[in-house]
């Protein structure tokens, strides 16, 4: 189903009726409103202006549109900031961040939390049972503009309390956990502990990791406050939050537990550009459409976070304003993205935004309509999707052959001590994910500790910290091919090298011992020999004692590179794409599932027995469709930036 | 005529007489002194040391040298700063900038303004009618070292007042003008408004634009204070200020209105290097002489700002100290630059500085003399110019075939929301300007709203904000070819997209509608087809509905690229040099003026019926001189880094 | 002899005995302990925990290990910082640096100095005469993490006092010395002087130079305090400090005067990477072994600073954690480095660290043992060295053919006004040093003013400030080839251009005059013609009047490039490697000493009549060994990363 993000406060109530009418024509069912509108709702403390919002909801009800109401807590108004400047966040350099854009608040501020409770209660009470309101979005893009980690005095106090709870009031536990004997960092009480910024040398990594956890928890608590209130006053409505792509500053799985489903904001062009830049790549063949796997990674991640359910809450529908440069999308891209989201299980794709706003920060961010209300290119593609949707039932759940274990703490561990310039968890994960997708496999992205039952194969690009109670048991129970990447099991819960040496607890299932590791410079290319082929190894390599594991493959200079015990594999290096394609192809074959490599830029995704094929290239590409399949959309010739859908009758 | 910058306070009065004598021999008529000398004039509050300055002026009078007296306000002395630390500026990051170099003051500080009035009054009273004093320079290089925009509490208050005046005390006007409904940025009073720095996300662009205008106005007011006092106490003397090259942080046209003429400081090697770096160019064929068009752009700009009159107040005469690297100029370059300045209408070329100072920050900045008083290479070239000048009368005014409309607000609009990495107003302007110069055309650089009468062609690289009363009327009245570049008319006065869509008010004369725009990455090269040729398009492209305009040319993939209605053209892209050369050649021809491309590095400039040809290359280049011309200097073979001058008798 | 760095406080006393036993087996004689252990010694003010340290020393004594005791002053504990937050340092941007890593103190803090005196006295009294304690290390790596130069209010006061002493209480002397008349920077009292940070434009270079000297002196005083106390309470024990590589923020010669010998911390892989990066080089053929000359430069420098005596206090023995990327060393490298150190005169090579610590900041920094106590690769190589050492007597002093004058003030002068992007003193020095080493020459690195007697040749890559009493006299007395590089003699003691023009006082021995200088961009390659060959000149060039000196060589475009008067040479440019090899070869030959170029990556070093040959390449290399030599280790075929040692009987 289709939705749209809309800001009645920008246009005046007089235009809402017409806009709602046009939305209906376009097939829009859901309209998200209200996030960012605090100053319109409560222009000064205690004085409320409900008129515009009352009328908007009334019209929505009348016209049969379903409203997703956003809480306006991402933008506390000026009067509130002036009353309580202590809610402003402080950055890593110690600078207070000021009013004048958005997200100018500290998550742990108790003052701000009270204000949030107050405004959310008032709004939830007023509209919680309104027939037009079908659900809620809390706040907006938690953490955007680097706002998860605040370094204000309030955070310091809250962090001390958090530590006191974690270490059960015993400072010696913390001293031991952090190894503070090193460099005379020992503390005598929790009150002595500082925030880990502005130190002459690197802060203690255990200190940082606990601080990152604390900061992540603050977001969770902040969101939890809102959820609790909304649940009370708005029974039967869903609650979600719109996450971002490639953002790991808080644990999205944990936060999602409080939500009915996850949502995310899909801006393929900018996300692809930013991701490739992070990797140091200078060419971008997908610059007008986005890399299919960078996009679908988030679909699969948030489907996992949402326990099978997710929305695209904001879908790019034209050129945006925030990337290093801002191309307009290729013709067909908006339709392609929409179908791709549905193929990966999205329940709703909601475009951002209805109409380009001619003022303020995002005036160069396009909408379905231009500022003068003329339909943009994207508009017509949405229309086409709407028509196509009428004839297709895609409500089957996504079932995946492969699970990929993705872990926020591992992202933090890698970022705290990368040990080398190119060492980035997201890059490593993407290599695994993209190779699986290049073989046409459906992938579930799951947190450590999830049940792995029913998957043909499980890949763990890296899991730095293995917690017995959570992950290890699920790994032990799993009998299919289970592949661990480098640095797995390399740290204890408090960022120490495990006493039993890496891979720590994983030794139970893959009995090897990592003796030392190295990060490689751009000039260092090592060579892996496997199955008669040579593969380049860059970025990372480990020196591993196989102990009783089998050495499946070696580096050209001798030492083992791939290790195996029964169904479990350990890769002692940063794998390249070609190797992963070969490895996964072979392992899948061994499970009895023959896969084939898809052409560059072509992707397959299955939802029940419906198969989708996407062409993210500017060329027509011919694909093979199993005989007897029943075509639903398109055919075996995929036009540029287009797709085909069929039903596999033989499955 | 020739001048020099001199610092008697550095050398002691005993050396001044000898120095003045050598200046006379070299043909120097004007000597600028005094700027930066506050601590020598007033070593402590209220105690004055006039002796050295009295004697310097006395000697100047005796020896027939004309003094340009600088006000010393760029360098408040330590005692003043210690009395009033609140005059120190605050940078964007919130850091107070300290005493110890120069420009350590905030333009809006009322305390500092009082001090400025006091010292300028005292100096102007004392020397205003001195026979040696022929003119004044206010302060020095306003804005150097990024000092126009200050973020101190005084500026915040002053900005609030400025806004209150602009929006007539009506905060709702401001809220509407800035679109503060977006992201709950609404204000209830002017006292609530912050300075636009240290926000988590980008500040509101309207907020920024008004702040940039405010900051520009502060410079204007600061200068105005000084001008008013000097006018009172120094009747009949001129007042000027020495501007910089490529600097757009305040509106030089507006400030110049208070001056008798504009001056600027010409450092060709560094300016060329900095400009090419900004453009991302790595090669610099002009590294020992400077790019002729980068130099003459400022000549033409400040001739415009000075309403036909300008000086070069500081002319590089050897290697300097401040560029990323500092070559010495090619032999001949100092002479070449001097003649180039005269060709573009400079009244005086004043070298920086008389003698290299062996101490403090600029000790590696050369002068006409080395620290031991030995003549530098530049010295001999100045001598040559002096001899050559004796036989040449170049006092005719510069008349130009083409006007280029240059606008400071457009520079601010581009910098506030560039929308892409290479999108820079100065780069765009330079493309237009340099193509015109490459065709041998004289160019006037004028502000929007200037009369365009008498020009064969008018180019507007971009004019983001079109103000009806100013610019639009002059465009309407103009009947020659009038070419607008991209983003023209793209914003309202308060940085909104015009309700009628871009190009906004320009639609009256060029009825097209810009539907969407994109900025291009370095890998994106689009193709323009025009007149049987293909041209690359980089950086920027627009999607334009021609409405009733003629589509003159299209992009290779279909949409219109150049639009025309009668005499008015709109270019929906960032044009490349080759295209602009072809376009301007063709349009000039249509006006009956045949132009020819000059060899790379050769430039022609006319002053009355005197024609100058300059060779900025290390090779001899032969040029064509119209038959019957009367040679004044050189001949048709231009030696490396040299020139020829002739009188066109047939004109 | 061999040593190791050990942290009993990390492991608990119960493991010390076993560790000491294994050290003995490995041939370790010296164990450095205690630096960083303040919080373990004094967990709260006045409460001491001596037990672990008492027992450690007792065990050492019992087992015959010699202890080097570190003072723990690099890491003031939290309780001290909380009592006296004013000891925290302030960085150039004005930010207070916080507790949580190390080196969080200001060198000039009188409060901290009192604390340092207190703790050092207590420790020195307790252990000063302990039989196991043979020596002391003060603090740890002074200046690491950019901590020499602090910008706190205490430093401001102390700097004012320092200036008052230097300028004998006469502010006018300072005004003259700094040239404060420039830009009205004049001071009326020492109390007015600020620290040279946060100025809008560059601070006065004389101000900076004096501030750098002041900061260097603070380190000296801080160290002096400790030395004085240790001398009193620990008679007969040596005192040293572990310096870093390529670090010039304080004068290591001056500080070393208070020490018995110098030590340094040798991390070849990281140092090579950082040095090449500084030079803009992208290839690193020595990435797994380090550049031999980058390593031995520090050996030779600290042998000079230590007046013939030095240790390697920390020797990399495996992969480390702090470089841009962290490779493991090639097999053989640890042995190679150890022998290289001995060849250059090291008395002890002490590995860092005994066992990799599994927690805190340096957990990815390897040791001789892995965290689980398994021997690392390095361990076995140390074992090999220990065996080899048994048969070799290398106690002869290092005698060098060439002296290279290295000067910390010149490093400061270059960094304060580099005048161009690639202009770096260490790069210049390295060019001279590495060319000498490439010819198989032993090099002594000496401060200006050292006796130059007995050297066949003396090179001075640059000596910006020539002080009559110190350096000039030694140059005058020296009669061998004496080669000065560019910028020599270019500044007075207070950073002014000398009144007699550069090379200032050096004119007495090399009568030339530098008229002007230029720094070259990457695109500017000038050409030197010498001895029938052409050499590229980059980075720097000078325009020199030979006066009465001989012009030995010229630039291709005419002016002189190499000048000579009798035995003294002046190079008016930044020389390239090939030229320096040719020059030094020729000049050495003229002294009667024939040298030959060594293969790339091969180095020779002599200690008495023992000759060492090192192969830093991955290939076997054959070398020539003089007939009649007596082989001690290896032969003329040097295996990869290996060495040979022989006795020259004919010498």
From TrEMBL, chains A, B, C:
Which stretches make up the Beta-galactosidase C-terminal domain?
601-648
Give a GO molecular function annotation for the protein: beta-galactosidase activity
Active-site residues, as the UniProt record annotates them: 141, 314
Q: Where is the Glycoside hydrolase family 42 N-terminal domain?
A: 5-392
User: What's in the GO CC field?
Assistant: beta-galactosidase complex
Binding locations of Zn(2+): 106, 150, 152, 155
Extract one GO BP annotation from the record. Answer: galactose metabolic process
As recorded in UniProt, its EC number(s) are: 3.2.1.23
Looking at the record, the residues that make up the Beta-galactosidase trimerisation domain are 401-591
The record's keywords, sorted A to Z, are: Glycosidase, Hydrolase, Metal-binding, Zinc
Top-level EC class, please?
A: hydrolase
Short name of any one Pfam family annotated for the protein:
Glyco_hydro_42M
Q: Which domain of life is it from?
A: Bacteria
Q: Which residues does substrate bind?
A: 102, 140, 322
Record's catalysed reaction(s): Hydrolysis of terminal non-reducing beta-D-galactose residues in beta-D-galactosides
Note the InterPro entries from the entry.
Answer: Beta_galactosidase_C (IPR013739), Beta_galactosidase_Trimer (IPR013738), Class_I_gatase-like (IPR029062), GH (IPR017853), Glyco_hydro_42 (IPR003476), Glyco_hydro_42_N (IPR013529), Glyco_hydro_b (IPR013780)
Query: Per the similarity annotation, which family is this?
Result: Belongs to the glycosyl hydrolase 42 family.
Q: Would you tell me the protein name for this molecule?
A: Beta-galactosidase
| Species classification | Bacteria, Thermotogati, Thermotogota, Thermotogae, Thermotogales
